[in-house]
Amino acid sequence: MQTIARVAMELAERERLERKRANRPLTVRELAHEWLRWLEDVRRVKPATLRDYGALLREPGIPYKRGTRVTHGRLMGGLGDRPIKQLSTRDVSAFLRALDDEGLSARNVNKHRQVLAAMFQYACREDTHGLQVNPVLASDKRPEPPPAALDYYEFHEVQALADVTAAGEHRHGVRDELDLRIDEQDAEFFRILFFTGLRLGEAVTLRWCDVDLESRTVLVRRGLSAGIETIPKGRRYRYVPLAGPAVDALRRLAARGEFLGPDDYVFANVWGRRLDESAIRRRYKRACAAAGLRPMKLHGLRHAAGSIVARTADPVFVRDMLGHAKLTTTDRYLAAKFRPEEYARLDAAFARPADDASATIALRQ
Fold first, then answer.
1. Band of the pLDDT at 110, cuts 50, 70, 90?
2. Distance CA 211, CA 238 (A)
3. Which residues have a Cβ under 8 Å from the Cβ of 170 and sit 6 or more positions away?
4. Which listed residue, of 1, 10, 219, 322, carries a Cα 20 to 30 Å from 20's Cα?
């Protein structure tokens, strides 16, 4: 009987706690966890996006995987315990001003605001929590400085980069046969990025079944997100036309004698596996220094492709080649550097006939 009574008491206590939890208001912390699960399970957002959102929604004081630093956890530390129905625009604005006072950049403050706004927009849905108003939307977005002027390597600079890489001049010490193969493939890798404008994740996941040298195209149907192969950015496949030098580079890669099956990676390590993004970035950085080039991120080779093609092609072609969702993204490449014919038009606009110039001189005399 005592056992039955004890079990009955435990069940009653469990029901009481469940009723208490059911009546307790939902907090910002709980909303954050629910929103992240929804993004992953329903919206199927990319792993890198989940990683970035999760980084802003971590608890304070959690150690990073590397080093001795711990997370700041500003959102959870500042607002995590607040019931979502009691959070006002004034509360959000005060939180954002505290980030300003802490010295965070406008871009970083806006990232916190963006995540918070997206969470509460989810909470406003009728099938979630039915909030009447998103308190974040009326808060102030911080003005951010304009993006830096677009700079990129020209053809001769990329050729110098590839030559230095293939010769192993960025290495220290004697190269063995394995180093030689890696260096030669890296040189072709940099050329392909430059001549096609592929994103890094699209290039390292490219397989031979996606390459058609006869029609001079590659089919981009994969990318990388947080190290996981997924569909490309923009959630659509695209065909990328190949310039002659890109075809030549791919033909040289096809002559390597191994890892040439339809499902093999075009750019493979010594075991036939996918290249490591961090490792290729490090080798690229060393090769740029060895070639005497100004520092430029590896993604700058994509910028170079778009900007150079934009000198002779129409914006729609550049947009489709690079896989931009909007022409407004492509516009940045159109204004990076002027086309040669535009300088000719400028000279023509300010040119004066010789007789007009002589007449002007005579009048002045």
1. very high
2. 12
3. 164, 283, 286, 287, 289, 290, 291
4. 1
- What's the predicted TM-score (pTM) here? 0.77
For the packed helices 155-167 and 277-290, what is the interaxial angle rounded to 10 degrees?
100
Q: Which residues pair with 31 in a beta bridge?
A: none
Tell me whether residue 266 is exposed, middle or buried, using C-beta atoms within 10 angstroms of its C-beta: 0 to 12, 13 to 18, 19 or more.
buried
Based on its alpha-carbon atoms, the radius of gyration of the chain, rounded to whole angstroms, reads 29
Q: Specify the pLDDT at position 363.
A: 47
Handedness of CA 268, 271, 273, 274 (dihedral sign): negative
The answer to whether 31 touches 84, Cβ cutoff 8 Å, is yes
pLDDT of 12 reads: 63
Write the burial class of residue 50 (CB in 10 Å: 0-12 exposed, 13-18 middle, 19+ buried): middle
Report pLDDT digits (tens) over 212-229: 999 999 999 988 887 888
Could you give the CA distance from residue 350 to residue 361 in angstroms, rounded to a whole number? 17
Distance (Å, whole) CA 32 – CA 38: 10
The sheet with strand 211-212 has its strands ordered as 211-212, 217-220, 238-241
Helix boundaries (H) for 1-59 = 2-23, 28-38, 47-56
Secondary structure (DSSP) of 144-180: PPPPPPP----HHHHHHHHHHHHHTTTS-S---HHHH
What average pLDDT is seen over the chain? 88
CB 144 within 8 A of CB 163: no
- Whether 89 has a pLDDT exceeding 60, the answer reads yes
Give how far Cα 221 sits from Cα of 114, 188, 196, Å. Answer: 29, 21, 15
Which of residues 37 and 338 earns the better pLDDT score? 37
- Cβ–Cβ under 8 Å, residues 113 and 141: yes
